[in-house]
């Protein structure tokens, strides 16, 4: 492991409600604990029900009577581009905050936040290409299709990429003309409050955005609020079920981006040396705390050992340690409970009869670390192959034919991401088209970006990113002229 240094982080004493920094309604605070040192490194206010009520009231007023939904799309696009510029100005602090709070290595954090800033400017460009009104005529008469903002949006995001995920939701909702109350997770709130500073500096109108860090109770109050028109949530499938049930009570629009157990299929014609450079970060990058991680590696049975001979040295050569150290490739897990969860699954894998090839231990020293772990001879019906672990654990599953590999990949409750590695591009695309998943890469791996991202089955409902992500925040109205 690399040398460990104590991180420092800025604390906050106010909440961002309707574009203003205000005192919280209670004295409750969130202690931000370093996953590296296991010590408190910052505090932020914990939003209570009264803070949610105030934020929703501000959003409601801004949507019903304020200028934001009534601006031209081009005017909104200019404001979104300014947010991207303001984020870029704060890049260094955003990177440092995320690294300290969540434990993501500096290179990963830099990529996340550079991407987040660029996404705001890309959404500004997308607005210019979006048709918000369309004349139509037909046998039933003539009229106009109008695409209007859905209203007040409640957005709930996880800790594993709060500014990236928060930006995905905010920029699409704002581009549509919605107003938003964003609730980040208590494990990564500081970076999202720096995002609030960028939003404030960009000059968005009063009431348009609020950012309220808090726990589950805060999220449930937001989801259940009668003045919220749409909920967008990224997180676990279990939490998504609860949110969907609450939304069903009021027939509230909902977008869910949930868990994954994605498969990477390796064809028998591919050079394995070309696979490892993307397969390894896809599986254990960010210590496996990525919903779209490729955690099931499907390989021809006769090539399983060849794959392990290439994969295991690469895994064992990864540098664990202080995420602020540029040499570090894997930081700690975000919380002690997350480390306990990952270790429990490693024990389950051994008990189920999978072969533990490497990893599975805690390195010496402080921090919530787990070594990157590889299981081989895994059966697709084992729990470690079916349940989302959200840690640096990958399962190598052998197959005997391409048809069996497709069946194994699709034999999952999830369908979020995936990859196909093949020398023959026609074969790779043919396999990719048979996998029931929201996104799949050929000879590589990708996540989010500017294209639609979301899942099949229990990986969620709806898409984020691209034109499809913007459409999720629009309602369609037909005005019939006769």
TrEMBL record:
Active site: 257
Statement: the UniProt record of this protein carries the keyword Nuclease: no
Pfam families given in the database record: Aldedh (PF00171)
Catalytic activity, as annotated: an aldehyde + NAD(+) + H2O = a carboxylate + NADH + 2 H(+)
Source domain of life: Bacteria
Domain (Aldehyde dehydrogenase): residue spans on this chain: 21-479
PROSITE patterns listed in its UniProt record: ALDEHYDE_DEHYDR_CYS, ALDEHYDE_DEHYDR_GLU
Keyword field: Oxidoreductase
SUPFAM superfamilies tied to this protein: ALDH-like
Enzyme Commission code: 1.2.1.3
Alphabetized InterPro entries for the sequence: Ald_DH/histidinol_DH, Ald_DH_C, Ald_DH_CS_CYS, Ald_DH_CS_GLU, Ald_DH_N, Aldehyde_DH_dom
Family under the similarity heading: Belongs to the aldehyde dehydrogenase family.
Stated name of the protein: aldehyde dehydrogenase (NAD(+))
């Amino acid at each position: 492991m690399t040398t460990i240094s104590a991180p420092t982080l800025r604390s906050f004493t106010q909440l961002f409600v309707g574009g203003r920094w205000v005192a919280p309604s209670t004295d409750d605070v969130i202690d931000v604990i370093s996953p590296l040192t296991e010590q408190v490194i910052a505090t932020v206010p914990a939003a209570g029900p009264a803070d949610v009520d105030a934020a929703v009231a501000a959003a409601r007023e801004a949507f019903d009577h304020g200028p934001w939904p009534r601006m031209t799309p081009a005017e909104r696009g200019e404001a979104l581009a300014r947010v991207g510029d303001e984020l870029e100005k704060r890049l260094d602090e955003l990177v440092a905050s995320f690294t300290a709070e969540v434990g993501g290595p500096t290179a990963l954090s830099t990529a996340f936040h550079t991407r987040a800033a660029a996404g705001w400017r890309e959404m500004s460009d997308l607005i210019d290409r979006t048709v918000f009104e369309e004349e139509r005529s037909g046998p039933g008469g003539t009229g106009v299709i109008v695409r209007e903002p859905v209203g007040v949006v409640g957005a709930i995001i996880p800790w594993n990429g709060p500014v990236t995920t928060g930006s995905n939701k905010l920029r699409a909702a704002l581009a549509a003309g919605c107003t938003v109350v964003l609730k980040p997770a208590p494990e990564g709130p500081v970076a999202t409050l720096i995002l609030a500073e960028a939003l404030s500096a960009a000059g968005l109108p009063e009431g348009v955005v609020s950012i309220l860090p808090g726990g589950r109770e805060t999220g449930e109050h937001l989801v259940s609020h009668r003045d919220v028109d749409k909920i967008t949530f990224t997180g676990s499938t279990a939490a998504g079920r609860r949110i969907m049930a609450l939304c069903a009570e009021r027939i509230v629009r909902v977008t869910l981006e949930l868990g994954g157990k994605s498969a990477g299929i390796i064809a028998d014609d591919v050079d394995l040396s070309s696979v490892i450079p993307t397969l390894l970060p896809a599986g254990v990058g960010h210590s496996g705390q990525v919903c779209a991680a490729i955690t099931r590696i499907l390989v021809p049975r006769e090539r399983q050992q060849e794959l392990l001979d290439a994969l295991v040295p690469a895994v064992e050569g990864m540098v664990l340690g202080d995420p602020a150290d540029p040499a570090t490739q894997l930081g700690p897990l975000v919380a002690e409970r997350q480390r306990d969860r990952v270790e429990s699954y490693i024990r389950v894998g051994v008990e189920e009869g999978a072969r533990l090839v490497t990893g599975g231990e805690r390195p010496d020293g402080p921090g919530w670390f787990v070594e990157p772990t590889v299981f081989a001879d895994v059966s697709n019906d084992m729990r470690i192959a079916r349940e989302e672990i959200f840690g640096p654990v990958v399962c190598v599953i052998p197959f005997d034919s391409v048809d069996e590999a497709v069946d194994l990949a699709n034999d999952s409750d999830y369908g979020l991401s995936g990859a196909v590695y093949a020398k023959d591009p026609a074969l790779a695309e043919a396999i990719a088209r048979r996998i029931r998943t929201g996104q799949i890469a050929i000879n590589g791996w990708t996540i989010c970006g500017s294209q639609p991202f979301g899942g099949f089955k229990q990986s969620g409902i709806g898409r984020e990113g691209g034109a499809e992500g913007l459409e999720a925040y629009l309602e369609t109205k037909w005005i019939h002229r006769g």
